[in-house]
Design goal:
- The protein is built from 15 helices and 4 strands.
- With about 325 residues, it is mainly alpha-helical.
- Strands 1-2 form a two-stranded antiparallel ribbon. Strands 3-4 form a two-stranded antiparallel sheet.
Length: about 325
């Protein structure tokens, strides 16, 4: 028996969702969290640099960084604070938090039953689809559709549903759909970051429909990933590189004179692959780094590499 998501349910009361912490609202926490993540992660690598810890994993020596960096620490600190406090994304978040109605709770049982109904409808269509494949659906149904009680909703009788449909519906509602929303938000943000950098993650949240608490994960991760990509340390095993295909070594190529037109992706490499700007030839990158280190001064790097030739890895690899 399918769960009726509308007629069999009494009207359910909704109430404002309580914040994770009583001292701060969720929208404001979503704005503050990425700033905290940024400074904590940056502080870790600052300590590493000052103490010499993890020195063997640095991409560039201190002398190399001092010769190429044209911005002082004081200026970098000033601009970072200014961007974080006056950023369009922060202002937009404050405006939406002030004007929005906020999220509510109390409708979880209803929404869950909707997803289980969708799974039930999909299973109901399986016999027709599997008829063309020769699969014995009756045998499958015996092992998959034993009914179990799964919900007791505000005085309603226990509803009977096949176990596999209930489990799949719960997995979709609580885990699979939110995870897909986060991944989709990252894909959208990665596509928008070159055009509207300050609003890219806000656009990703709006298009994907993530909740405020999911946006905390998105903003916190994006801030952490941004620092990791610019930290100047290349660790032997990086789980983010295994998942996303990007790390500090990948993004550092984008900041070199010979790699400016490559490796634009902040979180994923899909757009670089599509646009032909993906550059991950380790041997070629190692040769270019060695040539840059042995050059005499920052501007000699371009002269030694033949002017404009090294600005395009496609030319270098031919």
């Amino acid at each position: 028996m399918a769960v009726n998501a509308t007629s069999s349910f009494e009207p359910y009361p909704v109430r404002p969702m309580p914040p994770l912490f009583s001292s701060i609202s969720d929208p404001h926490l979503a704005l503050i969290l990425p700033i905290l993540v940024h400074w904590l992660t940056s502080a870790f690598f600052e300590i590493c640099e000052r103490t010499g810890w993890l020195e063997e994993y640095r991409l560039h020596t201190t002398e190399e960084e001092l010769s190429k960096n044209r911005v002082t620490r004081r200026e970098c600190l000033r601009v970072t604070i200014q961007c974080q406090m006056q950023g369009l994304q922060t202002l937009l978040g404050l405006a939406l938090g002030a004007l929005g109605d906020g999220e509510v709770t109390g409708n979880e049982d209803h929404d869950l039953s909707v997803w289980i109904n969708r799974v039930h409808a999909g299973f109901a269509a399986l016999p027709t689809l599997l008829r063309f494949t020769g699969v014995d659906f009756k045998t499958m149904a015996i092992t998959m559709t034993e009914a179990r009680s799964f919900l007791h909703l505000r005085g309603q009788p226990a509803l009977k549903m096949p176990v596999i449909e209930v489990l799949l519906g719960k997995a979709l509602y609580w885990y699979i759909v939110p995870a897909f929303q986060l991944v989709f938000a990252l894909v959208v943000a990665d596509a928008c970051i070159l055009i509207v950098d300050a609003l890219s993650y806000g656009i990703g949240c709006g298009v994907s429909g993530v909740s405020t608490r999911l946006s905390m994960i998105l903003f916190g991760y994006s801030s952490f990933k941004n620092v990791m990509d610019h930290c100047g340390y290349l660790f032997p095993w990086n789980p983010m590189r295994s998942i996303t295909g990007t790390d500090a070594g990948f993004h550092d190529v984008h900041h070199q004179s010979w790699g400016l037109k490559t490796n634009f992706g902040a979180h994923l490499t899909v757009w670089d692959h599509m646009m032909g700007t993906y550059f991950a030839d380790k041997e070629q990158i190692a040769r270019l780094r060695t040539r840059a280190r042995t050059s005499q001064g920052p501007q000699h790097d371009e002269k030694a590499s033949g002017g404009q030739a090294d600005s395009n890895p496609q030319t270098i690899r031919t």
